[in-house]
Give the backbone structure.
Amino acid sequence: MDQNLYCGDRHWQYHSIDPSGFEEFSTGALVDGNSRLGRLPGDPNSTDPDALIDQPYTQSEPSGGFLHVTITPGERPTAMMRFHDERGVLLHTVEKVAR
């Protein structure tokens, strides 16, 4: 399994990849009332004004929700990350397979 994974808590859901290969999955806020959109890579007021971070997924609308992570053991273990809104609707999926 890729050892460069991290799950964090912000007020929005996202999947970001640092140039070093470190990947971050943000769980986001649980309910709509606590959610907001984050700043995108390249935004001069963000923590990444030079757009060095790749962001394959970020919420387009502020929404509560959760990150469901499933680990499947075996010869090539798999981690499946599924972003859902607060009603359980699937928004985005990322699968990571051990090398």
Q: What stands out?
A: Strands lie at 5-8, 13-17, 23-27, 54-58, 65-72, 78-85, 90-97.
